[in-house]
Amino acid sequence: MTVHAKLIAIGNSTGVILPKDLLARLRVAQGDVVSLSEIPGGVQLRSFDPDFEEQMAAAERIMRDDRDILHVLAK
């Protein structure tokens, strides 16, 4: 699905106007925090879930710190 959004000036910054139906699908509203991630070919926008972000950070630490152990377990 492709959604087009307009960039607007907000003071010295630039903002994006997101369509109402997209906001509903993301389950976010004005004032909520969203997560932006660079991916190949663009940017991914997701609703921000602090618990999920904490779990992902822990998983990344484990994968980095225990890389050798995980490699052996994968065999």
Word description of this protein:
A hairpin with a 2-residue loop joins β3 (34-39) and β4. With 75 residues, the protein is an alpha+beta fold. It has a single domain, classed as Pemi-like Protein 1, Chain: D. 41% of the residues lie in helices and 29% in strands.
C-alpha end-to-end distance: 38 Å
Helix content: 40-55%
Could you give a short account of the major beta sheet? 2 strands, antiparallel
Q: Would you tell me the structural class of the helices and strands? A: alpha+beta
Overall 3D shape: elongated
So what's the CATH class?
Mainly Beta
- As laid out across the biggest beta sheet, the strand order is 1-2
Quick overview:
This protein is of the alpha+beta class. It has 3 helices and 4 strands, in the order ββαββαα.
Annotate the secondary structure layout.
Blueprint: E1 6-10, E2 13-17, H1 20-26, E3 34-39, E4 42-47, H2 50-65, H3 67-74
Antiparallel strand pairs: 1-2, 3-4
Features:
single chain; 75 residues; Pemi-like Protein 1, Chain: D; two-stranded antiparallel sheet; alpha+beta; 3 helices
